[in-house]
Amino acid sequence: MTSTSPRTRALAARRPWQPPTEVERRLRDAALAGDEKGYLRVLAETDLYLYLAKDQVDAGGARSWRTTEDELGNWCVAVRTPGERLPRHAGSVASCRTLEDLAEHWPDARFSLYVNPGSPSGMRLRARPWDRRRWKKAARAAGTDRPTTLLTKLTGPRSGPLAHALACGAHLSVTNGVLWNEIGDVYRDYERDVHLLRDIWGTGTPQEWQLQMNALLAARNSPPEPELALRVRRELSRDAATLGADAWRRACAAALDELEIPEADAAVQDVIGRILRYEARFRADGLLAPDGYVRSAVGYDYGRAVGFARWGLSARLCPAEAAEGAILRAGGACREAYDSWEDFSAGYALGRVLRFDTEEFGEWYTAVLEPHRLLTTDPGSPWRTVGWDEAQGGNPGARIR
């Protein structure tokens, strides 16, 4: 049996409804048309969220699926799509699944699948063995490689300082397939987020989260050599119409002597060569204008600070006020360091590839190139709708030149 609830139909009939994202709009249209095949197609293309008891997840081991009664008294397993995720609650956390995951591990054929309960985008789907075979078929048709997309919460901030700051984290939002303009539980899976923060970032407590956040906001999470070299070039370029590589190299060597760290010269000279080669590739791929260059790579730490704040919030390592405050500080730091979204994006990209890519131009490079292209061309992108100087605050006079 497939159905929308009487309450959902009544709500849709009584008042206008703004879908949180494009996903929910497509689901609503399919539900109203009674198009189960189309509804499954949308579900197969998006993340689905089960809500589990936090204490069970933290304890590890077996955990029970939460069930609920729908308006008709039928027992269901409820899932939510990205725009319909529940408000944060101390006792429950989200677990990300795909439609194929649900088909493979469904607990009992007596339970229905209830998508977005209480929403006009909701639908209840029977989950008998032959129904679940249809879910798998829809999942296979959708494929495993989802296209690079931008997820916007239409009811979230889309202008002003907070939207600007959140857009500074849009590289990671696109890469991770999460909403760019939401503060809350936006990352994909609580348990996975907790493990990644602990294993990759060494962050398992609120105190450790704050230490890492402080380092990102101070641009101390990345190696210092690239920023030193870029700062020397910025200063030289103020007094020269053109700046050759040899002059840049000599100036860096002199700066290191003045700082009494000549032993760092080999590393700085190496990074200058890497910067020049990456900038040439950036120009060829449209990350830089034909005559452009990267002024600063601090955008990589600042952009990650936005994602790290939201990630820590999802993992319950910081309160919402601390996450929002860090995000706004990161946005302000970006405005001080750069003059445009394109300028910021090139700096973010250079910081990332210098840290991880080793001039292979592989996944570490494409993971910034593809979001850059999407964010600079999609008409709905915040980089097209939120002006760089739209946000108030910061200190434009202190911008890096």
TrEMBL record:
<protein>
    <recommendedName>
        <fullName>DUF1266 domain-containing protein</fullName>
    </recommendedName>
</protein>
<dbReference type="InterPro" id="IPR009677">
    <property type="entry name" value="DUF1266"/>
</dbReference>
<dbReference type="Pfam" id="PF06889">
    <property type="entry name" value="DUF1266"/>
</dbReference>
<feature type="domain" description="DUF1266">
    <location>
        <begin position="197"/>
        <end position="388"/>
    </location>
</feature>
